[in-house]
Write a structure and sequence with these properties.
Nucleotidyltransferase, domain 5, five-stranded mixed beta sheet, 10 helices, 10 strands
Protein backbone atom coordinates (compact mmCIF):
# COMPACT_ATOMS: atom_id res chain seq x y z
CA UNK A 1 0.00 0.00 0.00
CA UNK A 2 1.50 3.35 -1.08
CA UNK A 3 0.54 6.36 1.02
CA UNK A 4 1.26 9.93 -0.05
CA UNK A 5 1.90 11.93 3.11
CA UNK A 6 1.96 15.69 3.70
CA UNK A 7 3.45 17.54 6.70
CA UNK A 8 3.20 21.31 7.28
CA UNK A 9 2.84 21.79 11.02
CA UNK A 10 5.64 24.33 11.48
CA UNK A 11 8.41 25.57 9.19
CA UNK A 12 9.03 22.55 6.95
CA UNK A 13 6.90 21.79 3.92
CA UNK A 14 7.27 18.04 3.42
CA UNK A 15 5.85 15.25 1.32
CA UNK A 16 6.69 11.56 1.10
CA UNK A 17 5.55 8.25 -0.28
CA UNK A 18 5.63 5.40 2.23
CA UNK A 19 4.93 1.77 1.35
CA UNK A 20 3.17 -0.53 3.81
CA UNK A 21 4.04 1.72 6.72
CA UNK A 22 7.69 0.74 6.91
CA UNK A 23 9.45 1.61 3.65
CA UNK A 24 10.30 5.13 2.52
CA UNK A 25 9.91 5.32 -1.27
CA UNK A 26 10.57 9.06 -1.40
CA UNK A 27 10.87 11.95 1.04
CA UNK A 28 11.15 15.65 0.25
CA UNK A 29 11.52 18.49 2.77
CA UNK A 30 11.56 22.20 1.92
CA UNK A 31 12.87 24.02 4.99
CA UNK A 32 12.35 27.66 5.92
CA UNK A 33 15.04 27.81 8.63
CA UNK A 34 17.25 30.40 6.96
CA UNK A 35 14.39 32.86 6.59
CA UNK A 36 13.08 32.44 10.14
CA UNK A 37 16.64 32.68 11.50
CA UNK A 38 16.52 36.40 10.62
CA UNK A 39 13.83 36.82 13.30
CA UNK A 40 15.26 34.47 15.92
CA UNK A 41 12.38 32.02 15.64
CA UNK A 42 9.45 30.89 13.52
CA UNK A 43 7.12 33.66 12.32
CA UNK A 44 3.72 31.93 11.83
CA UNK A 45 2.49 34.25 9.06
CA UNK A 46 5.67 33.77 7.03
CA UNK A 47 5.56 30.01 7.59
CA UNK A 48 2.00 29.78 6.27
CA UNK A 49 2.82 31.80 3.16
CA UNK A 50 5.88 29.70 2.36
CA UNK A 51 3.84 26.52 2.72
CA UNK A 52 1.35 27.90 0.17
CA UNK A 53 4.21 28.64 -2.22
CA UNK A 54 5.99 25.30 -1.80
CA UNK A 55 3.44 22.57 -1.20
CA UNK A 56 2.47 21.81 -4.79
CA UNK A 57 6.09 21.52 -5.96
CA UNK A 58 7.10 19.44 -2.93
CA UNK A 59 4.26 16.95 -3.46
CA UNK A 60 5.08 16.70 -7.18
CA UNK A 61 8.74 16.06 -6.40
CA UNK A 62 7.87 13.34 -3.89
CA UNK A 63 5.71 11.58 -6.48
CA UNK A 64 8.35 11.96 -9.17
CA UNK A 65 11.08 10.50 -6.95
CA UNK A 66 8.78 7.59 -6.16
CA UNK A 67 8.12 7.07 -9.89
CA UNK A 68 4.39 7.28 -9.23
CA UNK A 69 1.50 9.29 -10.61
CA UNK A 70 -0.87 10.83 -8.10
CA UNK A 71 -3.60 8.47 -9.34
CA UNK A 72 -1.45 5.49 -8.30
CA UNK A 73 -1.33 6.25 -4.57
CA UNK A 74 -3.71 4.33 -2.32
CA UNK A 75 -4.38 7.04 0.28
CA UNK A 76 -3.44 10.58 1.29
CA UNK A 77 -2.22 11.16 4.85
CA UNK A 78 -1.78 14.60 6.39
CA UNK A 79 -0.78 16.19 9.69
CA UNK A 80 -3.86 17.89 11.17
CA UNK A 81 -2.72 18.53 14.78
CA UNK A 82 -0.94 19.93 16.73
CA UNK A 83 1.08 22.80 15.29
CA UNK A 84 0.82 26.34 13.94
CA UNK A 85 -2.81 26.60 12.87
CA UNK A 86 -2.16 28.57 9.67
CA UNK A 87 0.60 26.21 8.61
CA UNK A 88 -1.51 23.13 9.36
CA UNK A 89 -4.43 24.47 7.35
CA UNK A 90 -2.28 24.71 4.21
CA UNK A 91 -1.42 21.02 4.35
CA UNK A 92 -4.88 19.89 5.43
CA UNK A 93 -6.69 21.79 2.68
CA UNK A 94 -4.25 20.67 0.01
CA UNK A 95 -4.61 17.05 1.15
CA UNK A 96 -8.41 17.31 1.19
CA UNK A 97 -8.49 18.62 -2.35
CA UNK A 98 -6.07 15.97 -3.57
CA UNK A 99 -7.91 13.16 -1.80
CA UNK A 100 -11.27 14.28 -3.18
CA UNK A 101 -10.00 14.69 -6.74
CA UNK A 102 -8.31 11.28 -6.72
CA UNK A 103 -11.13 9.47 -4.93
CA UNK A 104 -8.64 8.19 -2.34
CA UNK A 105 -9.08 7.92 1.45
CA UNK A 106 -7.99 10.91 3.55
CA UNK A 107 -6.05 9.85 6.66
CA UNK A 108 -5.56 12.40 9.47
CA UNK A 109 -2.35 12.00 11.48
CA UNK A 110 -1.45 13.48 14.87
CA UNK A 111 1.99 15.08 14.56
CA UNK A 112 3.43 13.56 17.75
CA UNK A 113 2.18 10.11 16.78
CA UNK A 114 4.12 10.68 13.58
CA UNK A 115 7.33 11.42 15.49
CA UNK A 116 6.94 8.15 17.40
CA UNK A 117 6.34 6.30 14.12
CA UNK A 118 9.71 7.51 12.79
CA UNK A 119 11.18 4.67 14.83
CA UNK A 120 9.25 2.11 12.77
CA UNK A 121 10.96 3.35 9.62
CA UNK A 122 14.39 2.94 11.20
CA UNK A 123 13.72 -0.22 13.21
CA UNK A 124 11.45 -2.65 11.38
CA UNK A 125 11.56 -5.04 14.32
CA UNK A 126 9.99 -2.50 16.69
CA UNK A 127 6.40 -3.25 17.65
CA UNK A 128 4.17 -2.06 20.50
CA UNK A 129 3.92 -2.16 23.45
CA UNK A 130 6.78 0.06 24.60
CA UNK A 131 7.33 3.43 26.27
CA UNK A 132 8.45 6.49 24.32
CA UNK A 133 9.98 9.85 25.25
CA UNK A 134 8.99 12.50 22.71
CA UNK A 135 11.00 15.72 22.90
CA UNK A 136 10.50 18.58 20.45
CA UNK A 137 10.15 22.34 20.24
CA UNK A 138 6.58 22.30 21.46
CA UNK A 139 6.27 19.01 23.32
CA UNK A 140 8.00 16.98 26.01
CA UNK A 141 5.97 13.88 26.87
CA UNK A 142 6.34 10.36 28.16
CA UNK A 143 3.81 8.06 26.52
CA UNK A 144 3.00 4.38 26.73
CA UNK A 145 2.54 3.08 23.20
CA UNK A 146 0.04 0.29 23.81
CA UNK A 147 -0.65 -0.26 20.12
CA UNK A 148 0.02 1.60 16.88
CA UNK A 149 -2.99 3.86 17.46
CA UNK A 150 -3.50 3.47 21.23
CA UNK A 151 -1.52 5.70 23.61
CA UNK A 152 -1.47 6.46 27.34
CA UNK A 153 0.03 9.75 28.50
CA UNK A 154 2.36 9.21 31.48
CA UNK A 155 3.99 12.62 31.76
CA UNK A 156 4.03 15.97 29.95
CA UNK A 157 5.49 19.45 30.18
CA UNK A 158 3.67 21.83 32.53
CA UNK A 159 5.22 24.94 30.94
CA UNK A 160 8.04 25.20 28.39
CA UNK A 161 8.99 22.17 26.31
CA UNK A 162 12.65 21.11 26.22
CA UNK A 163 13.08 22.24 22.62
CA UNK A 164 11.72 25.70 23.41
CA UNK A 165 14.09 25.95 26.39
CA UNK A 166 17.00 24.98 24.12
CA UNK A 167 16.12 27.64 21.53
CA UNK A 168 15.50 30.47 24.00
CA UNK A 169 18.56 29.66 26.11
CA UNK A 170 20.66 29.43 22.95
CA UNK A 171 19.45 32.85 21.84
CA UNK A 172 20.54 34.29 25.20
CA UNK A 173 23.94 32.68 24.70
CA UNK A 174 24.25 34.41 21.33
CA UNK A 175 23.59 31.41 19.10
CA UNK A 176 21.35 31.67 16.02
CA UNK A 177 18.02 29.87 15.55
CA UNK A 178 17.46 26.96 15.84
CA UNK A 179 19.71 26.86 18.88
CA UNK A 180 19.74 23.19 19.83
CA UNK A 181 22.39 22.19 17.30
CA UNK A 182 24.64 25.10 18.29
CA UNK A 183 24.40 24.25 21.99
CA UNK A 184 25.20 20.63 21.15
CA UNK A 185 28.33 21.70 19.24
CA UNK A 186 29.50 24.22 21.86
CA UNK A 187 28.95 21.73 24.70
CA UNK A 188 31.65 19.46 23.29
CA UNK A 189 34.28 22.09 24.21
CA UNK A 190 32.84 23.05 27.61
CA UNK A 191 33.01 21.93 31.22
CA UNK A 192 29.60 20.43 32.16
CA UNK A 193 30.27 21.01 35.89
CA UNK A 194 31.31 24.68 35.82
CA UNK A 195 27.89 26.25 36.44
CA UNK A 196 25.21 25.03 38.82
CA UNK A 197 21.74 25.05 37.25
CA UNK A 198 18.40 24.23 38.95
CA UNK A 199 16.40 21.06 38.41
CA UNK A 200 12.71 21.93 38.68
CA UNK A 201 10.33 19.62 40.53
CA UNK A 202 6.76 18.80 39.51
CA UNK A 203 3.73 17.41 41.34
CA UNK A 204 3.59 14.44 38.97
CA UNK A 205 7.12 12.98 39.13
CA UNK A 206 6.99 12.24 35.40
CA UNK A 207 5.94 15.71 34.27
CA UNK A 208 8.52 18.20 32.98
CA UNK A 209 9.17 21.88 33.70
CA UNK A 210 11.87 23.82 31.86
CA UNK A 211 10.70 27.41 32.32
CA UNK A 212 12.70 27.92 35.53
CA UNK A 213 15.81 26.37 34.02
CA UNK A 214 15.56 28.66 30.99
CA UNK A 215 15.13 31.69 33.25
CA UNK A 216 18.12 30.63 35.37
CA UNK A 217 20.33 30.57 32.26
CA UNK A 218 19.13 34.00 31.15
CA UNK A 219 19.67 35.46 34.65
CA UNK A 220 23.13 33.93 34.90
CA UNK A 221 24.12 35.55 31.62
CA UNK A 222 22.70 38.96 32.60
CA UNK A 223 24.27 38.90 36.08
CA UNK A 224 27.66 37.96 34.71
CA UNK A 225 27.51 40.77 32.16
CA UNK A 226 26.46 43.32 34.81
CA UNK A 227 29.42 42.36 36.98
CA UNK A 228 31.73 42.79 34.02
CA UNK A 229 32.89 39.18 34.23
CA UNK A 230 33.68 36.84 31.34
CA UNK A 231 31.18 34.09 30.73
CA UNK A 232 32.35 30.70 29.49
CA UNK A 233 29.64 30.15 26.88
CA UNK A 234 30.83 26.66 25.90
CA UNK A 235 30.73 25.51 29.53
CA UNK A 236 27.32 27.08 30.06
CA UNK A 237 26.08 25.23 26.96
CA UNK A 238 27.57 22.00 28.34
CA UNK A 239 25.95 22.53 31.75
CA UNK A 240 22.57 23.35 30.23
CA UNK A 241 22.64 20.35 27.87
CA UNK A 242 23.73 18.02 30.68
CA UNK A 243 20.98 19.28 32.99
CA UNK A 244 18.22 18.94 30.40
CA UNK A 245 19.45 15.52 29.27
CA UNK A 246 19.57 14.18 32.82
CA UNK A 247 16.13 15.58 33.72
CA UNK A 248 14.57 13.96 30.64
CA UNK A 249 16.42 10.68 31.11
CA UNK A 250 15.86 10.32 34.86
CA UNK A 251 12.11 10.90 34.60
CA UNK A 252 11.75 8.69 31.54
CA UNK A 253 13.72 5.77 32.96
CA UNK A 254 11.86 6.14 36.27
CA UNK A 255 8.52 5.95 34.47
CA UNK A 256 9.64 2.91 32.49
CA UNK A 257 10.82 1.09 35.61
CA UNK A 258 7.60 1.84 37.49
CA UNK A 259 5.53 0.51 34.58
CA UNK A 260 7.71 -2.57 34.09
CA UNK A 261 8.85 -1.46 30.60
CA UNK A 262 12.09 -2.90 29.27
CA UNK A 263 11.53 -1.67 25.71
CA UNK A 264 11.83 2.10 25.27
CA UNK A 265 12.19 4.61 22.44
CA UNK A 266 13.15 8.24 21.84
CA UNK A 267 11.55 10.55 19.25
CA UNK A 268 11.13 14.19 18.24
CA UNK A 269 13.38 16.98 17.04
CA UNK A 270 15.43 17.13 20.25
CA UNK A 271 16.15 13.39 19.83
CA UNK A 272 18.88 14.57 17.45
CA UNK A 273 20.79 16.09 20.38
CA UNK A 274 24.01 14.18 20.99
CA UNK A 275 24.05 14.79 24.74
CA UNK A 276 20.55 13.43 25.22
CA UNK A 277 21.23 10.39 23.03
CA UNK A 278 24.39 9.50 24.97
CA UNK A 279 22.78 10.03 28.38
CA UNK A 280 19.75 7.91 27.52
CA UNK A 281 21.87 5.18 25.92
CA UNK A 282 23.97 4.90 29.08
CA UNK A 283 20.88 4.76 31.31
CA UNK A 284 19.21 2.15 29.12
CA UNK A 285 22.31 -0.03 29.22
CA UNK A 286 22.60 0.33 33.00
CA UNK A 287 18.98 -0.75 33.45
CA UNK A 288 19.18 -3.49 30.80
CA UNK A 289 16.56 -1.84 28.58
CA UNK A 290 16.21 -2.16 24.83
CA UNK A 291 16.42 1.37 23.38
CA UNK A 292 15.27 2.49 19.93
CA UNK A 293 16.34 5.88 18.52
CA UNK A 294 15.66 7.09 14.96
CA UNK A 295 18.54 8.43 12.85
CA UNK A 296 19.04 12.19 12.98
CA UNK A 297 17.50 12.49 9.49
CA UNK A 298 14.14 11.27 10.88
CA UNK A 299 14.15 13.25 14.13
CA UNK A 300 13.05 16.57 12.66
CA UNK A 301 9.71 17.21 10.96
CA UNK A 302 9.27 15.12 7.84
CA UNK A 303 6.41 13.55 5.90
CA UNK A 304 7.79 10.00 5.92
CA UNK A 305 6.89 9.62 9.59
CA UNK A 306 3.38 10.90 8.79
CA UNK A 307 3.04 8.31 6.02
CA UNK A 308 4.18 5.58 8.40
CA UNK A 309 1.68 6.48 11.11
CA UNK A 310 -0.94 7.13 8.43
CA UNK A 311 -0.68 3.49 7.39
CA UNK A 312 -1.60 2.29 10.88
CA UNK A 313 -4.34 4.91 11.26
CA UNK A 314 -5.77 3.66 7.96
CA UNK A 315 -5.73 0.05 9.16
CA UNK A 316 -7.52 1.17 12.33
CA UNK A 317 -10.27 2.76 10.22
CA UNK A 318 -9.39 6.35 11.06
CA UNK A 319 -10.51 7.93 7.79
CA UNK A 320 -11.61 11.57 7.57
CA UNK A 321 -14.14 13.31 5.36
CA UNK A 322 -13.75 16.58 3.48
CA UNK A 323 -14.81 18.53 6.57
CA UNK A 324 -11.50 17.66 8.30
CA UNK A 325 -10.20 20.64 10.26
CA UNK A 326 -6.79 21.52 11.72
CA UNK A 327 -6.12 21.98 15.45
CA UNK A 328 -3.32 23.95 17.11
CA UNK A 329 -3.34 21.74 20.21
CA UNK A 330 -4.44 18.17 20.85
CA UNK A 331 -3.38 15.48 23.28
CA UNK A 332 -1.81 12.41 21.73
CA UNK A 333 -4.26 10.12 23.54
CA UNK A 334 -7.31 12.22 22.62
CA UNK A 335 -6.85 12.46 18.87
CA UNK A 336 -10.23 13.20 17.27
CA UNK A 337 -11.28 14.56 13.90
Amino acid sequence: MDILAIESSCDETAAAVVRDGREIISSVVATQIEEHRLYGGVVPEIASRRHCESISAVVSEALEKASLKSSEVDAVAVTYAPGLIGALLVGVNYAKGLSYSLGRPLVPVHHIRGHIAANYLAHRELEPPYMCLVVSGGNSIIVMVKDYTEFELIGQTVDDAAGEAFDKSARSMGFPYPGGAFIDKAAKSGDPTKYKLPRPHTVNPYDFSFSGLKTAVINLIHNTQQRGETLDINSLAACFQKTVSEILTDKFIGAALENGCKKIALAGGVAANGGLRRTLEAAAEKNEMELFIPPVSLCGDNAAMIGCQGYYEFLAGNIAKTDLNAYATMRIDKAVF
